[in-house]
Specification:
Shape: globular
Helix content: 25-40%
Largest sheet: 11 strands, mixed
Distance between the termini: 46 Å
CATH topology of the largest domain: Rossmann fold
Strand content: 15-25%
CATH superfamily of the largest domain: ANL, N-terminal domain
Number of helices: 12
CATH class of the largest domain: Alpha Beta
CATH architecture of the largest domain: 3-Layer(aba) Sandwich
Number of strands: 20
Radius of gyration: 22 Å
């Protein structure tokens, strides 16, 4: 690596230290050491830690939140008897789910991207974010990442890239030592630019949407390019990592892909180890499978977030299907294993000019739209899309025009968008709704 990039890495490590000291206190290094010791300990120690944290959270929820005070009846209930928290409960009872021991000033507003329906608004607190980040630091090191090391990020969080915040995004990328490739809008030009930049920048890891990673790897492969940088690992997150995505990325970049599973509502849930097993983050979450036998029969995943005290998530039905494993992992880590994960996928759309548009772009157009309950966008051909909507009494034609225009803005102004009003969006075979579907294959001229 050139000297100037080595100097940049040293600067970034110092910046990460300053950031963590400001956010988490001067003892954040010792906190990270304690986390590492816990998550590397025996299964008995991990489960004992979980029981203590779970009991504390349930007491807090019972005594400080109106919703759980009514639901639980006691401060120490059997968690398996607590009705799951549904997304509709959060929409209907948002304020009652918030702890009375926190003022509004302590709430941090957040929202999902709408991949399991209409975007969901909820609250977290600074303590949650500090603990979440520390756990991410621990697990991402499995893929070779470390604070300050150069990293290529193929992402598309449009909410972070508004005009008045763009300079903050650039500043954060600089001190974090990250280079961003917009995963929402991949073109040959942007991918070539990113590839050339990486030949000078020498990233140690890549963090990416699986579908965007696949498109970038496919571009490199089809162009006959050979990366000059040597990656320690690739972290994929936020979507289903299909086998052909993994196979191509590992072949092109000559390194391992580590799949990371999480949700905006509850943080990091699980991550793959070097042996390819997905270990559950028992420090921050208590995971259940809603199934008669979670080791033999898949069921819906229920998550209790152990750190978010401003708005407790207890047995939250996140919208994914999974199954547990009772094996002892060859890697030596005792954290329990999520054997399989089903149903997390987002389509990538294609325009007639060859530009690839990540499905997340479309789901984020529904932020702050209160007159749509559910949606599904289907790219039938390069010239035709179908937008299926379940609307409510607040629906207006202004919203229709906005949504159609948002689709045409990226797929082309002459693309026909057929709006269909339906009573329900049917579930896919995996048990989840698919909100972005593309039927356009590579090279299609339809």
């Amino acid at each position: 690596m050139p000297i100037r990039y080595s100097a940049k890495t040293l600067f970034s490590k110092a910046a990460w230290h300053a950031y963590n000291t400001y956010r988490k206190g001067v003892h954040y290094h010792s906190q990270l050491s304690q986390i590492t010791e816990l998550l590397n300990s025996s299964r008995e120690s991990i489960e004992a830690f979980q029981r203590v944290r779970l009991a504390k959270l349930l007491r807090h929820a019972y005594h400080t939140t109106p919703y759980y005070r009514e639901l639980l009846k006691t401060e120490s209930p059997d968690i398996s008897q607590i009705p799951p928290l549904e997304k509709r409960n959060i929409r209907d009872d948002l304020e009652h789910l918030c702890s009375e021991s926190f003022t509004r000033e302590h709430r941090i507003k957040n929202a999902t991207g709408g991949s399991t329906g209409a975007p969901l608004t909820f609250y977290q607190d600074r303590g949650y974010w500090n603990q979440r980040n520390l756990s991410v630091y621990y697990f991402d090191r499995w893929a070779g990442w470390d604070l300050g090391d150069p990293q290529l990020v193929i992402w598309g969080a449009q909410a972070d890239l508004k005009a008045d915040e763009h300079w903050k995004h650039r500043l954060n990328n600089f001190w974090r030592n990250q280079y961003w490739l917009d995963g929402f809008h991949l073109t040959e030009e942007t991918m070539q630019e990113a590839y050339d930049r990486m030949d000078k920048y020498h990233p140690q890891t890549i963090l990416s949407y699986p579908s965007s990673l696949y498109q970038f790897a496919k571009f490199i492969y089809e162009k006959g390019l050979t990366p000059k940088w040597r990656l320690k690992g690739i972290i994929s997150s936020a979507e289903m990592l299909h086998p052909h995505y993994r196979d191509l990325a590992e072949a092109v970049f000559d390194t391992k892909v580590y799949n990371r599973y999480g949700g905006r509502e509850v943080g990091l849930i699980a991550m793959e180890c070097t042996e390819g097993r997905m270990h559950i983050n028992c420090r921050d979450t208590y995971l259940e499978i809603d199934s008669p036998n979670p080791y033999t029969q898949p069921g819906e995943i229920l998550i209790t977030q152990l750190n978010n005290y401003v708005m407790p998530f207890i047995r939250y039905r996140i919208g994914d299907i999974g199954i547990l494993s009772d094996e002892v992992c060859p890697c030596g880590n005792a954290l329990p294993i999520l054997e399989d994960l089903l149903g997390r996928t987002t389509a990538t759309f294609r325009t007639r000019t060859g530009m690839l548009v990540h499905g997340g772009y479309f789901t984020q157009q529904f932020y702050d739209i209160g007159d749509v309950n559910q949606f599904q966008i289907i790219q039938e051909t390069l010239k035709h899309c179908v937008l299926k909507l379940v609307v409510n009494e607040r629906w207006t034609d202004t919203t229709r025009r906005y949504l159609v225009q948002s689709i045409q803005n990226v797929l082309g102004g002459d693309v026909v968008v057929t709006v269909e009003f339906v009573d329900e969006i049917p579930l896919s075979a995996s048990g989840k709704r698919q909100f972005t579907i593309s039927k356009v294959t590579t090279g299609s001229d339809d």
